[in-house]
Design brief:
Helix content is 78%, strand content 0%. It is mainly α. It comes from Streptomyces hoynatensis.
């Protein structure tokens, strides 16, 4: 990698971080390119040079931000399924992996959750794509659980997958906003009770 590409990568990273913080604080519409540039410590033209506009920046921000989360979820699921665990164990491992990510990236998580409701945005297809990456991983594990007989074959996989992703995301935000003194282990244990109580009872769904 050349020094020029290294510098550009560092600049883009600063812009990502500035945009995430500002949009999480005040929303997409209220955040301007000038504010992003100022927070990142670059000229306004640098933002346009790297991304073209705010919508393009936000789309790339979503894709880059969710990549380590999907990687962590996939690794957690594969680790559980490769051992002696079943689908519920895999989902529990994914829950913990998600909490670790959210604790390290609270602004991105708030942004991701808040902006899902704004369905009239130009970038909503990108947000839908990102969401499907997350729910798709959960749905794959649910399907394996149904196939193995661990989970009820009547389980609505699509709705259950979305509900589990929402449970973890909102549960984590509740933790960070209102119970910050609680440990990650405590939050994971609470969500694990909900998960196992609903899916882990021999196929109850």
């Amino acid at each position: 990698m050349t020094s020029t590409s290294t510098r550009r990568g560092a600049t883009r990273q600063r812009l990502y971080e500035a945009a995430i913080t500002l949009i999480a604080e005040q929303g997409f519409s209220a955040t301007t390119m000038e504010q992003i540039a100022e927070r990142a410590g670059v000229a306004k033209g640098t933002v346009y040079y790297n991304f073209g506009g705010k919508t393009e920046l936000f789309q790339e921000l979503l894709r880059q931000g969710v990549a380590p989360l999907t990687a962590g979820l996939r690794a957690a699921a594969q680790g559980a399924l490769a051992g002696s665990g079943g689908a519920v164990d895999a989902l529990d491992g994914m829950t913990r992996a998600a909490l670790v990510f959210i604790a390290a990236n609270p602004d991105f998580t708030r942004l991701l959750v808040a902006e899902q409701w704004r369905t009239n945005r130009a970038w909503h297809p990108t947000l839908t794509e990102v969401r499907h990456q997350l729910t798709g991983l959960v749905e794959e594990v649910l399907q394996q659980g149904v196939k193995s007989g661990e989970l009820d074959p009547a389980l609505d996989i699509e709705l259950t997958g979305g509900a589990l992703v929402g449970m973890v995301a909102l549960g984590a935000l509740e933790w960070l906003a209102f119970h910050p003194a609680r440990s990650l282990d405590e939050v994971h244990a609470a969500l694990s009770v909900l998960l196992r109580g609903r899916l882990g009872g021999g196929g109850a769904a």
